[in-house]
Amino acid sequence: MKKEERTRDDTDVLLKALHLPSFLRLRRNVAEQADKGGWSFEQYLHYLCEMELDERKRRKSERMLKASCLPRSKTLASLDLSRLPVAVRRQLPTLCEGGFVDRAENVLAFGLPGRGKTHLVCAIGHELVLRGYRVLFIPAFKLVQRLLVAKRELALEKELRRLDVFDVVILDDIGYIQQDRDEMEVLFTFLAERYERRSIIITSNLVFSQWDKIFKDALTTAAAIDRLVHHAVILEMAGISYRTEQAAKRYQAEKDKP
After folding, report:
1. 78 near 70, Cβ under 8 Å?
2. How many structural domains are present in the chain?
3. Residue 256, domain member (yes or no)
4. DSSP per position, 7-37
5. pLDDT value of residue 54
6. Is 122 within the bounds of a domain?
7. Is the pTM of this model over 0.85?
């Protein structure tokens, strides 16, 4: 084996040991490109470093997206902005930038079923992941079940620490929870733990005056609302139900068939 070939193979081994897969994969093709373009060694090295960093960012975003449990289809690109209330449409770009996360603020989206609340908050969640924030999307009833199991196993504090890893937790459909006291207590504990430390995004079909259906106790209801709205952006989703509109279109299409 020629000395040049041995050096090349040894370099491949070193790059593998250094965990530089993009560097390893691209270096020969880039070397040819650099040779043809008359690049300096510094330019060649800089280009490979940029490719390695870009690939690492891509892989990290993919891991974070998988961990987020966000629905893959509910992105900003698939969101029909024309259906959003004007006030919400104006707030959306700022929310997607993530400043509210840095300030540990909350986002609360209210509206009747079918108004696009879940799609909206998921679209925000996707944009936050792209910006490097750790996001978790979870239906509210599943979070409560998860916390309740942890409490019964005397591991609630440990479970709260696991959730604390996420910069943002998106609780979907909090209004559907009809809780007993144990369930109400673990949910309140979760909200209180994140207060002024981590962000929560919540969707709800119930306005605040109806949250006694969730927390039962008037004092606990008031305390939960107080913590959530102290630093919060409130999004009011009005308009016609997406699902009702789609059903009407399907009905009309069937009716118009010859």
Report:
1. no
2. 2
3. no
4. HHHHHHHHHHHTT-HHHHHHHHHHHHHHHHH
5. 85
6. yes
7. no
